[in-house]
From TrEMBL:
Alphabetic keyword roster: Cell membrane, Membrane, Transmembrane, Transmembrane helix, Transport
Topology in membrane: Multi-pass membrane protein
Protein name in UniProt: Permease
Transmembrane segments: 6-26, 38-57, 69-86, 93-113, 125-148, 169-193, 205-223, 235-257, 263-282, 294-316
Chief location category: membrane
Keyword Cell membrane: yes
Amino acid sequence: MNLSAHPVVASLTPVFLLVALGFMAGRLQWIRDAAIKDLSNLVFLLLIPALLFRTMSAVRFEELDLRPLLAYFLAAGVLLAVLIGWRGFNRRSVVLALTGVFSNMVMIGITLVELAYGKAGLVTLLTLVSVHALLLLTTATVVLELAVARENRQAGAEQPHLLATTWSAFKSALIHPVPLPIICGLLFAQTGWSLPTVIDRPLQLLGNAFGPLALVLVGITLARTPLTGHWQSALWATLSKNLVLPVMVGVSAWAFGITGLPLTVMVVAAALPTGANVFLFAQRYEVAQETTTASMGVSTVAALLTLSLVMLVMSWW
């Protein structure tokens, strides 16, 4: 048997090679620290919106199956609650729980799923992506604000109104370079129109540039990630994110009667390493920043094995 021809190997190898090349570029300092933010802005503000809008601009509402949304976020919500309850209700607990639940669906997931499962798989993934940050990050914001309010009450300090904070978090998550172009693309698709070639072609070229650049950027970021001193917490977060969540999502999907390609894409999405948005929460709430960074790094490195295992199991399902 030609191992290199196996679909799991064929789809994972280019992903991890590009991450490895980015890691090498980061270690050799071919990309300066100041340029990383500019590259990130290029990916998130130009390339991602072009890819997401173009992909969803041909998808009709009647073609969408919303059961994966219910199944995935039920499992993610339950795991988030269990992890918070396990560590106790405080800011650190919430941030570390989010680290064990929030997947890197955009930077790694989009390219991987398209390589492995084609456009049909990508539509299922983008359905999840469209509300992934909106639901999980808004929920995390509300829970974190409740934790901060509890701490402030204990300290006798004033706290902004929770509804105002929640509304602000919801708006920030909605008016964002990921969900907004997906929603706009879906709305455009319902008109029955087709994108003119002079618009469609540039969007296609921008979208094609997203995958390689995003994966190289993951590697560059990984090269700048300190992993020492936080191994125990990072390993617990990695176990939760890379293995426990995909099992829970698989069970939840089975309970909803989801089978075939949508089930596979959901489980693979759940097995992706921790997404970078979690660090923004650690930074904003000034808690567990080094642990979160280390967890993202360990989760990404471990995904070389855990993601391969999950995809292999799902290929036999």
